[in-house]
Structures are given as C-alpha cells and as structure tokens.
Specification:
35% helix; 7 helices; 305 residues; 8-stranded mixed sheet; flat; BRCA1-A complex subunit Abraxas-like; alpha/beta; Cytidine Deaminase, domain 2; FAM175_plant
C-alpha cells in the first residue's frame, strides 16, 4: 500500500453534527469508522487571497495532484466494543479511517489510538483505490478524527475536534485541517447521498385533449369520482388545497400555458412543509417540557429539592 499524504479533509456539517450528537447523547465514550472517498484534483481554487492560490500551486506542483479525502458517512459504537471492521453496502464508500469520541481528555492521540490506527492501516482488506487517480495505487485507511469535551463544565455544550493522518513511514500522526462544507461546488459530491423519503405520489392524471370543453361535459362515473377523491387525498399530503383538476392542466401540450398553476403548486407544497416544521417545533417543545418535569420529579424523589 502507498503511504501518500492527504492534503485536504472535508466533511459536511450535517455529518459532523451527527457525530457530535452521537457523542453527546451516549452514556460513555464512543468510537467508530469513517467512510467516504479520496479524489485527485489538479484544479486551482478560485480565491482572492494570493497566499492561498500560491500555496495550492506549490502543493500541486511539488507533490503531484491535490489529494482530497471526503467523509460522507460514519458508524459508531461504544468504545468498550471493538471496531466493526466491515464495509458499507455502498461500493463507492471506502473506509477512510476511524474516530474516537471521549469526554474531558486532551486533544491529542494516545498510545491506544496509535495501536488501533496501526492495526487498521495494516489491514490489506481495507485498502482502497482513490477516484480519478492518475496511476494505479492503493491507500490505507489512515485518517483519525478525535473528539472531546472541555475539562470544565459549561452552561453551553461545546465540543472540540481535530483531524489527523497516520503516516506509516514515520509512525506518527500528522495534524490536518478539517474543512466543513455545506454549500458551493465543494458540496456537490454529497448531493448523490440524498434520497427522498416522501416522493411525490403517483397520480393517474388524464391528458387533456385539444377540445377541453367537450371533455368537461362528459358525465363522470362513480368509479372516476372515487378515484379522483383518492388522488386528491394523496395530493393533499404534499400540497394541501391544490385541486386535482388543476394538476391535470399541467400535463400534456398545454402545460406551458399554466406556469402560474405550477408556481401555485409549489407555494402549496411550501406551506405544507412549513406547517410540518411548526408541528415538529411544537412537539419538540412539549417533549422538552415533559423532560424538565420528569427531572424535577426525580430530584423531588431523591430529596434534592
């Protein structure tokens, strides 16, 4: 396996927030695997800072193409269990390394971290090939992400984290900057990982012919009325208040004349999403109120009040 330096480590804000939440909500320390991919790039980043551009040019010319590791997913378990050394179902996501989350400890790797990382990097079964590599090579899972909490209790929960790359040649950890990406071109690689849980319902809309008035004058049967009510009910789940007849107008050759109807459909969908968000906000407030009430009862039973 090749021991090449990783120039950049990227992670989405949602993935990092999920790892921090997993650490905060767990009863003890946790650790787990980091999944993602490594890609090669020879492009120069667009920046107004001349120092940043010159640094990127120096890296790309002196050490070959820029190697960027992108963390897209993770798997965590309590730290008293061994690491689950297995791959994800997604073949494009390789094991890039692992992470360790512990409370009130220094933000530097320990001897145990070195042993675990060395064992992981020495496993030939977890080596992977970077994307768009200019030549054939195999990289070990050498990334290590350390997360911890402050030594002193604070009113606001805070976390500290730092990324490293383990170099086999020097048997040491190299500190690396961790770029949190949420928007922009750097975030495009994460778009493919999103899959909608609530797709638009399949509704059998009839295409309107050129003689729409003649179609409107047809006598509707009981079956068509029932089907229309069923379709309307499914449509209300996505865009409440938007009639199924107006959706029919958006189908066929005359759809270009009904752009206003399409905009109104989007407005109804946004209103539905807003109502769902408010419902979640209200339920979260009630859950928090109930948790505070339960905590007061526990304190009262324990005689702490």
């Amino acid at each position: 396996m090749d021991d090449l330096s990783i120039h950049k480590i990227q992670i989405s804000g949602t993935t990092l927030a999920s790892i921090l939440h997993r650490l905060f909500s767990s009863s003890g320390d946790i650790h787990g695997l980091l999944f993602g991919h490594v890609s090669f790039s020879t492009t120069i980043p667009l920046s107004d800072d001349p120092a940043t551009t010159s640094t990127a040019v120096t890296i790309a010319s002196d050490d070959g193409p820029i190697r960027t590791a992108t963390i897209t997913d993770f798997l965590s378990i309590p730290s008293h269990f061994p690491l689950p050394l297995h791959q994800l179902d997604d073949p494009s996501a390789a094991v890039l390394g692992w992470f360790s989350g512990r409370r009130k400890t220094p933000l530097r790797p320990s001897l145990k971290d070195s042993t675990t990382t060395l064992s992981l990097t020495s496993s030939a079964s977890h080596s992977f090939t970077p994307q768009n590599a200019p030549y054939l090579l195999s990289l070990p899972p050498s990334l290590f992400l350390l997360l911890t909490t402050p030594f002193h209790e604070q009113l606001i929960h805070t976390h500290e984290y730092k990324a490293f790359q383990y170099r086999i040649s020097t048997d040491s950890f190299d500190p690396k900057s961790l770029d949190i990406i949420n928007i922009g071109p750097s975030f495009r690689s994460h778009y493919g990982s999103f899959s909608p849980n609530s797709p638009f319902p399949l509704i059998s809309c009839d295409l309107r012919g050129p003689n729409a008035m003649a179609e409107d004058e047809k006598v509707e049967s009981l079956l068509s009325i029932k089907r229309g009510l069923k379709d309307q009910k499914e449509l209300d789940l996505c865009a409440e208040g938007f009639e199924i007849g107006r959706l029919n107008k958006l189908m066929g050759s005359d759809a270009s004349n009904y752009t206003v109807e399409l905009e109104h459909l989007y407005d109804k969908m946004l209103v539905k999403l807003d109502s769902l968000a408010r419902l979640v906000e209200t339920s979260s407030a009630k859950v928090l109120e109930q948790e505070n009430h339960n905590m007061k009862l526990r304190y009262k039973v324990a005689g702490l009040k």
